[in-house]
Amino acid sequence: MPDWIRLLWRLPLLGLHVFIGIPIVLISFLPGIRNLPLASMRLHQWTHQLWSRWMLKIFGVALDQRGQLPVGPCLIVANHISWLDIVVLHALWPMWLVAKAEIRGWPLVGKLADLAGTLFIQRGSEASRRRIGRRMAALLKRGERVGIFPEGGIRPEPGVGRFHARLFAPALRADVPVVPVAIRYDRGGDLHEVMVFGPGENFFGNLFRLLRQAPSTVQLTVGSPLKGQLGNRSQLARQCNEIVKGFYDA
């Protein structure tokens, strides 16, 4: 199918999904109904996950999930390839995500991230890191799931970069497990270089390019939960890094 034909039908679907789907999801977040039980989730989690999974379908991305998150609060640590990774992790389970502050200003995604409960961190700011760290620890102690991309940014080249250890500390303070998760886009081969921003490409350019892409799969591999001890965040980060690399390269 020519790229322009895919764009012709996917773009209107995206518009409907955003302008009709988001208000429906927001209604489910209202006090009094947000915590209504639905299967193993709360109502607002179920609608959020469903919205995210349909978002992937509109982009022609099939979710291939391998493994399950543990029951209860945990810190999810994943490699980072595309802004679509945020949707992928919410399709796994609606969670609080830590993301760079610049995303708040992105069209569409910034607003969606804000509404979904994203914790925006200012890169290079120690005060921002400490504030976000305290917020993460409080959420984990409250029983929530929190996700981070510990590479600290998106690599233009394929593969998994080094995991920075600082944002592992809240999981140790809250005494909850850390779960390594690998994200890999595939279409008969690794699509890292297709999914990342191209040279000089802005958000809308990337969005329209991804909407035109042929169907693909996102392999989401969930590892076993790990526990660390206070003071050993660097060791825990290295361990998770090696596990995610192994999943990605498999």
From TrEMBL:
Check the record and name the SMART domains matching this protein. PlsC
Keyword Lipid metabolism assigned to the entry: answer is: yes
What is one GO biological process annotated to this record?
phosphatidic acid biosynthetic process
**UniProt keyword annotations, A-Z:** Acyltransferase, Lipid biosynthesis, Lipid metabolism, Transferase
Q: Does the keyword Kinase apply?
A: no
The taxonomy runs:
Bacteria, Pseudomonadati, Pseudomonadota, Gammaproteobacteria, Chromatiales
What pathway does the UniProt record associate with this protein? Lipid metabolism
Q: Which GO terms describe its molecular function?
A: 1-acylglycerol-3-phosphate O-acyltransferase activity
Q: Please give the InterPro entries that the UniProt record associates with this protein.
A: Plipid/glycerol_acylTrfase
Q: Which Pfam families match?
A: Acyltransferase
The protein's name is Acetyltransferase
> What domain of life does the UniProt record list for this protein's source?
Bacteria
